[in-house]
Every structure is written in structure tokens, then in C-alpha cells.
Amino acid sequence: MESEGSVQYHRYSPSSAQRMLSGPGLALRGLFITDPNGVIKHLSINDLPVGRSVEETLCLVKAFQYVETHGEVCLANWTPDSPAIKPNPDASKEYFQKVNR
């Protein structure tokens, strides 16, 4: 387990089982986000000419941590200061009342 500030993560090396290869010896850009038990929660693979956003990756990590801690649902474009939805129809009404004023 490694950490960057308050964010902890597993690092998988190119020699690990998660190797991304396209043809002989060509590594693609791959990202795996795992929970503390090593369960993959998110993965993306980009072609060589497409870069990745570190900010988006950090937002995803924070969203997975929020869901694990609070048991709520993080919508698209969620940020740590955004409201989240409780995962059942009755309890979710609180969110919709808050955002539809």
C-alpha cells in the first residue's frame, strides 16, 4: 500500500498480472482503482495518444472512499462538497428536495 497525502493506493507494476499489452511488448495506459482488500472498483485503458487526468483519478478515489464510508451514491460530476444520494427511493427524496429548490 502506498499513499499520496491522505489517499492510499495499491501500485501494480507492469510485471504484475494486470499487464496491459497491445501487440508484442507495447504497453497501453491502464489505471486500476482498488479498495483496501484489493478488489478492483474501477479500471480504464487508454490508447497511446490519449492522456489521463490526475484530477479525475483523485475525484474517483475520493468518491469510492465516500461511498465506502457513508453508503451513499455519488453522481456524475460529484465532488467532496457535493450532496450524495441515499441508495433507496424513500431516503433519496432528501437529495432531490435539496437540489430542486
Order of helices and strands: EEEEHH
> What does the average pLDDT come to?
82
Low-confidence stretches: none
Percent of sequence in beta strands: 15-25%
The major β-sheet equals: 2 strands, antiparallel
Placed side by side, the strands forming the largest sheet appear as 1-2
Q: What percent of the residues sit in helical stretches (DSSP H or I)?
A: 25-40%
Number of helices: 2
Give the structural class. Answer: alpha+beta
Distance between the termini: 43 Å
Count of distinct strands? 4
Gross morphology: elongated
Report Rg. Answer: 17 Å
GO molecular function: thioredoxin peroxidase activity
Domain Peroxiredoxin C-terminal: 63-98
Enzyme class: oxidoreductase
EC number: 1.11.1.24
Describe the structure.
Keywords: Antioxidant, Oxidoreductase, Peroxidase. Its EC number is 1.11.1.24. Residues 63-98 form the Peroxiredoxin C-terminal domain. This is thioredoxin-dependent peroxiredoxin. The protein has helices at residues 54-70, 89-99; strands at residues 2-4, 7-9, 29-34, 40-46. By secondary structure, it is of the alpha+beta class. The protein has a two-stranded antiparallel ribbon with strand order 1-2. A two-stranded antiparallel ribbon has the order 3-4. The longest helix has 17 residues, at 54-70. The N and C termini lie far apart (43 Å).
